[in-house]
Specification:
Largest sheet of chain A: 6 strands, mixed
Structural class of chain A: alpha/beta
Shape of chain A: globular
Strand content of chain A: 5-15%
Radius of gyration of chain A: 25 Å
Number of helices of chain A: 24
Oligomer: homodimer
Largest interface: A-B, 60 and 59 residues
């Protein structure tokens, strides 16, 4: 609080960054794109590329070249990226990886290997494309470019799958699980590269020692520490202020783990990320806490970081079409094809494998962070950084539309509430999930003519694999069985029943969906149609207020629902 | 991300501060004291006073005297205090001030005037107590000390009243309303002092102009802007991402308002605070958003700021017993007596006025922030700063115990569930608040023999004054009427009914409490006994699960409830 003027500018700069990020982020959300794309473009607009070129005086006033401003500003964006990586880690569910191990393993390894190998060899052999001068260390550069191109971005991928209502499907879980493996491998690998740099510059540890340290660190944090973390969390939730103590714990563990990895020569970001994974993976962390941290970090700190990317470099003068084309080409062809081939090996049919391929292609956040660190470490120059950011933007933008295209739409027209009638709509008061499911299966058996115990066992099998709580109090238990036409049974259950929805809310509206075994594509279409009706968080409460089936049916058929 | 070593230390310093603040804060909460006291003491331990004296090497490693570290660190604590003031402002409800205008006006004006006058004259006439050298400007110093001593700390006061279950009582509302007036006046006055300093140092505006600017700023923000802010909030809630867009709006408005006040020569903190008031006062701001911002700022940023106070000064070497005694004496006698006399004028009886007097005495946060700014502006020296911090700590610590003492405890023994029986406990399914209240009043009339319409009108009158939703799904509509013994009627209502609880949750358990008109002290005792049973957020849900009255009664009588 010593120099009013520099603080005034600091506040103005942060405000402008937040507003720009919000406006462009929302614009891209309206265009059905991830907000981060808008936020990065917002940074390019506010930065030297646009504002700096068009209105240099305004630009210099807002982002002065003053050591105090720069230091405070860098400190803040540094904290922002550390916090962002902590919450990215929190999102990661290692159990999901174990459940989907076969398909995820192939999708991720082949999906990484192809672009990595392509990136490595092209940048090694055709070094002249990237640098006119021979670079100091071709191998490090080639290793880095391979890694940067092959990494995928879990936060962006998760966002896209959520928006497409695919996140709870078999296909969605495979993509998420593969992206998790991809993230872990990518970061570990990048840390090794940084370590190698250290060696070649005379500091740091030898590569082998570096790799050992990383493996030990991972084992300690993800295996040894998990139980301890869980015990601490339980203790904190029961004995200290909730959720305050948990927030402190998450951030201090994240910061200390970050400081530790920085200290042993791996980057701080890796430590923050792994601490997040270790904490997020414990089942006791309540959804409310997660949500609270998420909202603040995602809405305040993440945008500050994404905007700051655009401030680092002049994207206009450092734009090199050849480098952009080469990197984008390797990324698109290598990643999509690699993940697609992997998914095919993992047991998916070709069209679904293509969906997975495009799902894995977006390198969003992670690619950019890696690029930024490499730029600061001197591994790459501005031209390559610009190309990596553009690659991240393009792969994130095309991901969703191409996934939709390959998903196809076998049947048109509204599928829900569709043919819901007196025999497929119920007002119930079950308190047990098992009883409720059994009741719904009986009704489904009566309606479809299929065997009740068969339906029940298929539904339970699906439920065990991944619980079917969606969000906003809605659950959609579902299965593919041998029937001719899809059957939907809906219960408005006056008691809340937990279906382990990602938002932590128990379900009051349960729609059971059975689709014909021989028309697998129907399931996704029906699922997404049902979810659409419940997009507003108030819909389930509206339904609970209605006291007879006719009112419920007319409400579902009205325009009110789903808006 | 350019200098790994400084960032490593930065992360370690922040982690240590967060951990220390948490541990000491929780310790003080267990001792039934506000957490902020522990946090400030934590800072004194981590700072030059203790760690710096005992282990200077460790201290210098964690908080290095490096310009980069200091700048990034100051930038972060600066942002922390700005955010803290924004949320302090959000808490302020100007309508409450209008409702309690008479009692609040007297309590606040006399409660400020007495310590201010005492502080002003003692520091002006007995200048030698504070400074051995004649200070540059005696008037500015005296004005400041008067203000710093007379300001009270809304966040701390609100916390204490909440812990004592007084916040929703008539007495509690008066204290809160008076503290709000006190805060607004104190900050406006301090801004004028800073402005005067500007003048006497050759910069800034003349005092009169300064005052005009402050009044115009307040009028624009609190009157002119309120409608616009409300419209913007409604638009954001309906059209953009919730709560993300709201978070961005709150912080950018707060930051920009802070930058504006800094720019016109008032301190940034004042602008942040007023922006918070303007936003928080709009009825559309949802409780969930408030909670999300609160949790993050209160648990991460506020502790960083409070710890940083201890880092500024060596509390051991700058401790001057005479200065501490004088300032503490003026504060205690002036503030408690002033507010007490004010409350007496405002219509409270003497014992309640004493409760209000001690309630108003804690100068906690605000006194410290004011002191810090004055220290940095050169108005006071380290000795006076140390005394102001000690004053803030002592007044906050003694506030709650002395309030309890004067509240007295007329009747001992457990009052709830007490004599709850088949005719005073009901399982209901009302959806309308009015119907529910009417039903409870009928039952109360049957049980007490009092006239039903009389009960209803008293209860509704109370409800209109301040809604009686408490928290965790509990509401306690209450009234004092002409009966001989207290009557409690309890409804476990299967439908949620909104009683405007501060946590935003609708009520499912409604306990109506009627106490004898001639024993006003009983009401508070009963109220706090009922609230105790529902301290755990799960109690209401437990009750909703029970399907008959006997189970409910035995649950209420068991140890399970209230723990």
């Amino acid at each position: 609080m010593n120099e009013p003027n520099y603080y005034t500018v600091f506040l103005i700069a942060i405000s402008l960054m937040l507003i720009t990020a919000r406006l462009l982020g929302e614009l891209f959300v309206k265009l059905k794109q991830p907000a981060i794309i808008g936020e990065i473009i917002g940074g390019i607009i506010l930065g030297p590329s646009l504002l700096g070129n068009l209105f240099p005086d305004v630009y210099k006033y807002i982002f002065p070249d003053d050591v105090h401003f720069r230091t405070a500003f860098d400190g803040l964006t540094y904290l922002a990226v550390i916090m962002m990586l902590i919450i990215s880690g929190l999102e990661i569910n290692l159990n999901l990886v174990l459940r989907q191990k076969k398909s995820a393993f192939f999708t991720s390894t082949i999906g990484m290997a192809m672009p990595f190998i392509a990136g490595f060899f092209i940048s090694y052999w055709f070094h002249g494309i990237f640098f006119s001068d021979p670079a100091e260390d071709k191998i490090i550069f080639a290793l880095f470019l391979g890694t940067a191109i092959s990494i995928s971005s879990l936060p962006v991928i998760a966002r896209i799958l959520m928006d497409m209502n695919l996140i709870r499907t078999n296909l969605g879980s495979t993509v998420i699980a593969a992206a998790i493996i991809n993230d872990l491998l990518g970061w570990a690998f990048f840390s090794v590269i940084l370590g190698m740099m250290g060696t070649s510059h005379g500091g740091g540890m030898p590569v082998l020692q570096q790799v050992t340290v990383i493996i030990v660190f991972l084992a300690v944090m993800l295996i040894g520490f998990r139980n301890i973390i869980e015990k601490i969390l339980v203790y904190l939730q029961n004995n200290l202020t909730f959720p305050g103590a948990i927030l402190t714990f998450i951030f201090t563990l994240g910061f200390l783990s970050a400081a530790f990895t920085e200290w042993i020569g791996i980057h701080a970001i890796f430590g923050a990320f792994i601490a997040g994974v270790a904490i997020g993976d414990t089942p006791v962390l309540r959804e409310k806490t997660r949500d609270q941290i998420n909202q603040f970090v995602t809405n305040i700190f993440a945008p500050l970081f994404f905007i700051s990317i655009g401030l680092k470099v002049d994207f206009v003068s450092h734009f090199d079409i050849v480098i952009v084309a080469v990197i984008l080409g390797i990324a698109l062809i290598g990643k999509v094809l690699g993940a697609m081939i992997g998914a095919r090996f993992g047991g998916f049919k070709t069209s679904d494998a293509a969906v997975i391929g495009f799902g894995m292609s977006s390198s969003g956040t992670m690619g950019i962070i890696l690029g930024l660190l490499a730029l600061q470490a001197g591994i790459i120059n501005e031209e390559i950084f610009v190309a990596l950011v553009i690659m991240a933007l393009v792969t994130s933008i095309i991901s969703a539309p191409l996934m939709s295209y390959f998903l196809g739409h076998a049947e048109k027209g509204e599928k829900f509430p569709g043919n819901l009638d007196d025999k497929s709509l119920f007002i119930t008061e079950f308190t047990q999930k098992s009883e409720l499911l059994e009741f719904l299966c009986s009704a489904a058996a009566a309606k479809s003519g299929a065997d009740k115990s068969l339906i029940l066992s298929e539904v339970l099998k699906r439920e065990e694999l991944i619980p079917t709580g969606i969000a906003n109090g809605l659950a959609i238990p579902h299965a593919k069985i041998r029937i001719r036409k899809p059957v939907t049974i809906m219960a408005v259950n006056r008691e809340p029943v937990d279906f382990e929805a990602p938002d932590g809310l128990p379900a009051n509206v349960i729609v059971m969906l059975l689709t014909p075994e021989d028309k697998p594509e129907l399931q996704l279409n029906y699922l997404s149609d049902i979810v659409k009706k419940f997009r507003s968080s108030g819909t389930v409460n509206e339904l609970l207020r209605l006291d007879n089936k006719d009112k419920i049916l007319s409400f579902l058929n009205s325009d009110g629902a789903g808006l």
